[in-house]
Every structure is written in C-alpha cells, then in structure tokens.
Amino acid sequence: MKKDGDTMKQKLIAENVDVFYGEKQAINNISLGINENTITALIGPSGCGKSTFLRCLNRMNDVIDTCKISGKILMDNTDIYGTEVDPVELRAKVGMVFQKPNPFPKSIFENIAYGPRIHGLASNNSELKDIVLSSLEKAGLIDEVKDRLDDQATGLSGGQQQRICIARAIAVSPEVILMDEPCSALDPIATAKIEELMNELSQSYTIVIVTHSMQQAARVSKKTAFFHLGDLIEYNDTDKIFTQPENEKTQDYITGRFG
Amino acid sequence: MDINRKNFTRSRKRVETRLKFYGLTSICFSLLMLATLLISIGLNGYTALQQAYFKISIPVDASEFTSEDGNILKNKINLYDWDGTVNRSFNKLFPEVKSRDDRKKLFSIISSNSGYDFKEIVKKRSLDKGKTVLTVWLSLSDDADQYLKGRLSKDIPEKDRRISNQEIKWVDSLVERKIAQLKFNKTFFTAADSREPESAGILGAVVGSALTLTITILFALPLAVMASIYLEYFAKPGKVTDFIEVNINNLAAVPSIVFGLLGLSVFLSTFGLPRSAPLVGGLVLGLMTLPTIIIATRASIRSIPPSIREAALGLGASKMQAAMHHVLPLATPGILTGTIIGMAQALGETAPLLMIGMVAFIIDVPSSFTSSATAMPVQIFMWSDSAERAFYERSSLAILFLVGFLIIMNLIAVVLRKKFEKRW
Ligand SMILES: Nc1ncnc2c1ncn2[C@@H]1O[C@H](COP(=O)(O)OP(=O)(O)OP(=O)(O)O)[C@@H](O)[C@H]1O
Ligand SMILES: [Mg+2]
Predict the structure, then answer these.
(1) Residue A259: its pLDDT value, please?
(2) I want to staple B278 with a disulfide (CB 3.0 to 4.6 A). Which of B211, B260, B393, B417 is the partner?
(3) Torsion of CA B44, B50, B54, B55, to 10 degrees
(4) CA B424/CA A1 separation, integer angstroms
C-alpha cells in the first residue's frame, strides 16, 4: 500500500444510510467512504444487504416500490438523493453490471450503442461506431467480436456476454461502475479475464464490487467492507481485513466458519 | 416387495393409458363437433354461390336517354320505363299469357329488380344510337331459384309451397328452351343488402366490419398498451391501483350489450355521433375489447425477464425509454396475440351493434367511417331471420365467410408471432 486510503479523494460517501423494504430494515445506519479510482469490495453472508447497499449508490432501489431510504449518499459532495438530482442522469454516471449477464436481445453493436444513443453522446454514425469500438477495446473484447458486431449478443458465451455488459456500461463514460457478483455465473477462465479487466479499469473508474469469493476480493480490491445482517462490521484495506481483521465476526467469516 | 412394486407400476401405466385415451377422446369429440357444424353450414350455404339466371333479348331505344353526342342523361335514364321494357320482352317468351292476373304471376318468377339490373347493364354498355336489341342474363326470382336448386320440392302440396304449379311450368319451360340456368352468383360478392335475396350481397357487411374493426384497433390498441405500461411501471401500489385493476378485470366480464347501451347513451346521445356508423361501432367494440388487450399486454410485459429492463435502467434509460425500447418490442408477440383474440371477439359481436343502430337495412356499400353500415354478424342475424329460403342459404354462406375471416386473422397472428419470436 503506497497510498494511504484516507488521503485519497473519496468519490462516494455514505452517511447514516438506512434502507427499509416495507417494514423490514435491510441496512442499519451505514457510513462508508469509497475512494476514487479504486476497487472496493463488499463481502458478507447472503442476505446481509450487500446488493441493497450497492443499488443505493445508483438509485436502482427507486424502482422497487416498497424500498425506502434515509440518510445521505454524497457523490463529489452532492447528495444523490437530493431533489435536484435526476436518477436517470445519475445512472449514466454510475453504471451497473449485474450478477447474471443481461445483454439486450439485439446485435452486439446495438447493445453497446444503446447507452450513447439515449444520452446523445454521438452526433453521427461514425462517432457512434468509434464509441462502440473503443468500449469493446477497453472491455478487452474487440478481438473476439470485431468481425461480428451484427450478431446477436445473446449468442455469445456467458463470459463474453458479461464483458459485453461491462463494455455497455463503459460506453456511456460513467465515473463509477457497480458490479454485483459479476463472476458468479462464470467459469474460472472467464472470471480471470474479468478480474484482469477490472484491474485495468480501476485506473480511470471507481469500482465497487459485491463478491462471495474471498479470493476474488483479496485479488482485485484495495479496500474491503464486511457486512453482516445489515450492519457494516468492518471496513479497511483489503490486506488488513484478510490478514489481521479487528472484528471476531470478520475473522470467522473469512476463515469460512460461517456464511 | 418386488411384486408390490410391479403391481404399482402396472396400475400407474393403466391410469396413464386411460387418461391419454380420455384426452384423445375429448379432442376427437370437439373436432367432430366442429366438423359437423362447418359441414352442415357448408351444405346449407354452398348453393348460394350460384343463382338462377334467364337469358333474354330486349329492345331499347337509346335515343330516349342519350344526348346528341352519345352521353347518358341521368334524369332521362331514370325516367325510362325499365320494368315495363323487361316485362314486355319476357311476356314475348310466353305469348299465351294474356290476362292481367296471369301476367302478374308470370312476372313473379323473375326478379322484381330486373328493370333496375337491366338499367345498370345498359349504363355500362356503349350503345349505338337509336334502337338496338340487347341480349342479357337477368336473375330469376328467389323462389324460382330455390326450385331450380331443388330446395323447393314438388311433393309438397301446392298451397304450402312458395311457388305454384303454373310458375313451375313456366320455369321448366325456360330450362327446356335452355334460356334459364344456374350461374356463379357474382352479386353476392359485389352488392350490399337488399329486400330481394337475388340482389343481396355480403360486400356491404364486409366493408362495414372492416371499417368498424379499423376504428376498434386504432382506438383500443394504443390505449391498452399505454394503460398496461402505466399499470405495470408507474402506478404506485395502493387502493386506487387495486381499484383500477379489479375494474379492468370486471370490465372483461361485462355482457357486451351493456357496451352497446353505453355507446347509445354516450356516443350517440351525448356526443351526437351519427347512428349506424362504423365510427361508433368501432368505439363501442374498442371499449369492449380494451380489457382483453390490457390483460394480454400486461401478461406479456410481465413475461419479459426483468433483467432486460434493469439493464436499460442501469444505463440511464428513463422508465418510459426502458419500456418503449426494450420491453414492448419483446412483448409484441404476446400483445399481438391478445389484440387478435380481441379483434376476433369484436368481429363476431352482434349485440352492442344492435344497440347503436348498425342493424339498419342498408343497400349501399359504406364508403366512410360515418356512413350508415352494418357488420357481418348483424347481416347474418338479419338474413337468418328472413322468411325466404334464399336468404337462409345466403346467411349460411356469410357464416362461412365470417369463419374464413377468423381463420385468416388467426393465421396472421401465428405468422407475425413466428416472425417476431425469431428476434428474441
Ligand atoms: N425487493 C425486495 N423486497 C423485500 N425485501 C428485499 C428485497 N430485496 C432484498 N430484500 C431483503 O433485504 C435483505 C438484504 O438483501 P440483499 O439482496 O441486499 O442481500 P445480499 O447481501 O445481496 O445477499 P446475496 O449475497 O444473497 O445476494 C434480505 O433480507 C432480503 O430478503
Ligand atoms: Mg445480492
């Protein structure tokens, strides 16, 4: 660790966030800062609220009627739940990659081009094509698909589909990319490719990843947050968490004693 | 233990065979019923494809209704004694018939529209100036027609028969002289309704139905799709939404005549739209099919994996964009199926149209959404209600037509569905 986390710029800051699904509280008073251009991992047993917290960061929870959020989440010092923030614009800045690859049942080109199109990022077709190609390039897919941009994206392998989804997220030039268990449906080789890709992307993007794999968290992330039953138990440099956790529960979880 | 298991397997197989047999039996039974229905209607209706005509030569004096340069003068041609012209020529085929009463009987074996039909033929021909003799085929009356088709048996006592012995003799004599025969009934496909079966056709009702369904689909489909999107994606769950939901389902079960009453009081009385018009019929049927389409649309929207919508939302698409760009195109096959089911329902619907006056007797093929019209099922209803046998066979043929249209609609649905499904 050359840079100390605390001196780095914090891209996202959660302050006293509570989330309820109807009457049921899923997240209890969580405060957490996420460093810019870093990979932050969220770990914890199933149902502890990792996905819920992640989805708060781009207001995807707004779509769920029963979901109520209180507290503040600051992005570059503005509260993303403030009245003047449009969730649609926010989601263009905070992209998301889901657990199961979910390409649109359209061509590869159309998949990547959709985001730039609805946000008016390209003024003509050749610009659009440039965006598509550079996104595929950044996602490390270009060699595999450049000859068949018009093929159905749903016909690709699972790993390729997931990288299409990453390329699709990159194409709208987000500042933050949220990934919810992006590798859980993939084999080790495809997983390795995506991890490599995340490493490269972390140069210019802030990445938050939810994962069930301790090894993955250890391999890719700089910082790790451990959640348990809706509480943030421990948040520290990944090295620290995995070598000398301060909390007993963290210790138990990472050594596989529960969860 | 082993024997037990064997017995168990055997009895399970027996049950399976029995259930399979039941299933097959029910399918066979319903197919048989359908076939019986179609065949009996077909046997009743196929004769309407033909009509009895007689051949006759009629002298006309074109100078009486054409101007110097050979143009037909409208007022003069309408004043010309067409009925008399045709009747006099027909009388010449039976010179022995002299008394007024006998002649009246004689003329009853030819269509009472003969004069009109002949005028229409004359209009279409370019005539030489002065006197000419035209040889044409004109319709026999519906009773003569039914007799020639063997639908009026001579064995029935004369007083119970619609055609007298004398009239039968005349018809037979025409047939003997080879100047009466059954020919393809073109009128049925080119005319609208008429008091006389031999002049009545289905075209008016077909066009009426087409105009009505056009309004129905234009009105119901966009409304239903927008309502479905709203209910699925925008409505906040709560009492109001529940209330709307319950009412949509209720609406689907409301007897169709109630929609007719609604159309009568709202569209006709309050808005003052024209009676008997496809516009009103279409709106009424649209209201009736709305719940069907809404229910089908919502079901097919829900069947699209939510991950597709989340992907779009995650990219910063608005709710409407996610629905319009991704969910709706994928839901199209389901929406189409629902729509076509709704349209088929509307095509066969009679009761609400009766309420708004589409049951009127209309002799012109409707030319616009506001002209008076009738629809196919209403036409069938009116014809099957008539005393003449000839109308009965026409209504059977019209039913076959209606069924044909339904089959075509369903085929279109299947084809469209196949086409869209490939993209998925
Ligand atoms: N849409 C929802 N409606 C109601 N409750 C929900 C909803 N989504 C999640 N929850 C509840 O909130 C809690 C946290 O769920 P969440 O999905 O965030 O867990 P998670 O840590 O991501 O679990 P996993 O590792 O299994 O994905 C769980 O108890 C879950 O049952
Ligand atoms: Mg989760």
Answers:
(1) 56
(2) B211
(3) -170
(4) 48
Helix axes B114-124, B82-93, angle to 10 degrees: 110
**R_g of chain A computed on alpha carbons:** 18
As for the ipTM of the complex, it is: 0.89
Element housing A256 (H / E): none
What tokens appear for B216 in the block?
Answer: 């129905």
Pairing of β A223-228 and β A206-210: unpaired
CA dihedral sign, ordered A61, A66, A67, A70: positive
- Of B407, B382, B404, residue with least CA distance to B394: B382
3-state secondary structure B31-58: HHHHHHHHHHHHHHHHHHHEEEEEEEEE
Residue B311's closest chain A neighbor by CA? A102
As a whole number of angstroms, the longest Cα–Cα distance in chain A is 57
**Closest residue to A105, CB basis, from B312, B317, B423:** B423
Residues A96, B314: C-beta atoms closer than 8 Å: yes
Looking from the CA of B21 toward its CB, the CA atoms found within 13 Å total 6
State the DSSP H helix or E strand holding residue A165, giving kind and residue range, or none if neither.
Answer: helix A158-170
Q: In this complex, is the C-beta atom of B310 within 8 Å of any C-beta atom belonging to chain A?
A: yes
Confidence (pLDDT) at B423: 54
| CATH numeric code, A10-254 | 3.40.50.300
**Closest residue by Cα to residue A151 from B423, B314, B326:** B423
Please check whether the domain covering B203-420 is classified as CATH 1.10.20.10. no
Handedness of CA A185, A190, A196, A202 (dihedral sign): negative
Shortest-distance atom of ligand 1 to CA A230: 14
Do the Cβ atoms of B315 and A63 come within 8 Å? Answer: no
Per-residue pLDDT reduced to its tens digit, A38-82: 999 999 999 999 999 999 999 999 888 889 999 999 999 899 998
Which ligand 1 atom is at minimum distance from the Cα of A22? 4
Scanning B394-423 for CB atoms below 8 A from A yields 423
Map A174-223 to HEC letters: CCEEEEECCCCCCCHHHHHHHHHHHHHHCCCCEEEEECCCHHHHHHHCCE
CB A223 within 8 A of CB A236: yes
B23 near A CB under 8 A: no
Residue B259 scores a pLDDT above 90 = yes
Taking residue A134's Cβ as centre, other Cβ atoms within 10 Å add up to 15
Structure pTM? Answer: 0.82
For residue B372, give the nearest of B193, B176, B231, B169 by alpha carbon: B193
Tell me the domain boundaries of chain B: 47-185, 203-420
Buried b (16+ CB within 10 A) or exposed e, B231-267: bbeebeeeeeeeeeeeebeebbeeebeebbebbbeeb
* Beta bridge partner(s), residue A226: A43, A234
Considering only CA atoms, which residue is closest to atom 6 of ligand 1?
A21
Find all residues with CB under 8 Å of A58, minimum gap 6, and list them: A87, A90, A91, A94, A95, A96, A176, A178, B314
Q: pLDDT for A131-151, tens place per residue?
A: 999 999 888 888 889 899 999
Cα–Cα dist B213/B330, whole Å: 25
Disruptive mutation site among A62, A64, A96 for chain B (greatest number of B CBs within 10 Å) = A96
C-alpha torsion sign, points B134, B135, B137, B138: positive
Closest CA to B58 of B127, B141, B108, B105: B127
Amino acid identity, residue B206? V
Give the whole-number percent of chain B exceeding pLDDT 90.
Answer: 62
